[in-house]
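tool_call predict_complex ligand=adenosine-5'-diphosphate
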Amino acid sequence: MNLHEYQSKQLFARYGIPVPNGLVASNGAEAADAARKLGGAKWVVKAQVHAGGRGKAGGVKLVDSPEAASEATEKMIGQRLHTHQTGPEGLPIHQVFVEQGSKIDRELYVSLVLNRDKGHVAFIVSPAGGMDIEEVAAHTPEKLIRVNVHPAAGLQDSQCRVMGFGLGLKGDQIKQFTKIAQALYKLYLDTDCSLVEINPLIVTGDKLVALDAKINIEDNALFRQKEIAGWRDASQEDEMERVAAQHELNYVSLDGNIACMVNGAGLAMATMDVIQLHGGSPANFLDVGGGATKERVSTAFNLILSNPKVKAILVNIFGGIVRCDMIAEGIIAAVKDVGVKVPVVVRIEGTNAEQGRKLLSESGLAVIAAKDLTEAAKKVVASAKK
Ligand code: ADP
Ligand code: MG
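tool_result ok
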């Protein structure tokens, strides 16, 4: 689950990580009020969306009066922000974060992620902050410093100094950085993060301040992060993925026009690959799970059909735990209930496959049968092109 910048900064503040003072606003009047309450002569109005790259996309505006803060806010609220991280649809702006403007001497990059190979939480830091870290990694990889934290030993102050010197910090700044790094590590563990990123962590005078903040929380741990789970902003999430999650279907929206319904994540991946191999493009990843029932098949059909881009459907079921005749009944019921108007290609194999195919062919529905995955993929790609 993603957090907004203002929520991430709220957590930072609790852990003693310095952040600029800021207030959330959802209209111009609130933004002007916020600027007055915060005081000072310069403010920044920042669109709150679940994506980075806002600066370059017009989602971060520097202003020098409460009136200008109000104006900038009115321009943003209700719009969709398109950054290189959002995709062409963009994300809706419902709130802005009004912050005191900081004088920036240097911009640094600091993040914590899980190093899955080692099973350690890892810091990635760089003196080249403020820009895309992927760019830095691609063109100047020597500017990235990686530090793995051993779970038993915890983060050592010596490791913090290595990072601090690598960031070009000196004297008291190294002490501040050590405090920030220790706090970040604690925050990462306490709140079950999968990512914490500060880009940029700035040097302003002799102080370090987190100017941006991004936190992702591990979904599987949300049950024990009740407060944070309550901060979820569904308006920033893919509507179909949200509905799928409610029905415990593993679903990911994609750009193509061939919807897939498969049991098992591995088979679902293979199915998408074979569609691609034959010149098609999948509209989604969908694993209905090993315990696929008639109802789940029906729900899954409804879900994939709610995507207007879908031109054809490929059902690929291997009846290992599930019975193919039962899946066939589910497909027939769903096609009748939902009123499917696009071609449906079905490949079923395994337990009771024969009975399943018989049910489909006798159903009177325009379901296209395929005997193996290659044939199914070819047929569905051809159907989608018509
Ligand atoms: P994003 O990463 O989505 O582009 P950031 O929060 O990193 O958004 O802001 C983009 C840039 O805007 C920063 O790199 C910084 O230069 C500037 N900026 C952001 N917040 C402030 C602030 N409070 N004061 C001054 N400049 C800021
Ligand atoms: Mg940033």
